[in-house]
Design brief:
By secondary structure, this protein is mostly helical. The chain contains 10 helices and 2 strands, in the order ααααββαααααα. The chain has a two-stranded antiparallel ribbon. The two termini are 37 Å apart.
Amino acid sequence: MTDSTRTTEDQEASRWSAAPIGRVAAPVKEQVVNAIRDAILDFKLKPGDRLVEREIITSMEVSRATVREAISVLASEGLVTVIPQRGAHVAAPSLEDAEDLYEVRAALESLVVRRFISRANENEFVTLEASVERMAAKLDEEPAVIDFLRAKDEFYEVLLAGARSSSLTQLLGSIQARVRLLRVTSLSTADRLPRVVQEMRDIVDAIFARNPDRAARLMAEHIQMASRLALHALRETK
């Protein structure tokens, strides 16, 4: 076996190593769905990459039928595109899709901050502020973008919990994964991460001031900036 073959096999196996089948309580199909989804959202698999059934079957020791069922679930979430005669690939959002996703996200998250201000308790206000400072602490660690995104996800978890809206949580959840495919491109410039932290701090300041109009506007501006950067990156790859 050549070194290049061994390296390729090691990389393939590492994509699925986080979810050993049969060792947790979740059904097998759910474990496969989670493993593939995590590989996509952690950018081990990138937009346009092919999902090789044989690789997944061998690495996770599951049936072809289970893998195809998992791919069907991910296709319904918008994370995977199945192309006749070419198989399944990680979804690569078009410019039009990306524009729509960011506009919807801006509208929904602006409403979320309004609901947070009116419904969250004092402890949730403090927890929200702390989540931004944990995000800021990542800057001292020179994090990979994916590590920074995980810290940013904590902010949104607190924000949604405090908004106490199952409707908003459901609506955002339906687009969250597809937006995640785009988020890494909006954070690709060296100076963007500190700016994101400052934007989050400004939003939290407006929330603490109980100023829903300012908080909603700042959230929309934050997402609009992410949209401009992501769309520019997408155009560069076309």
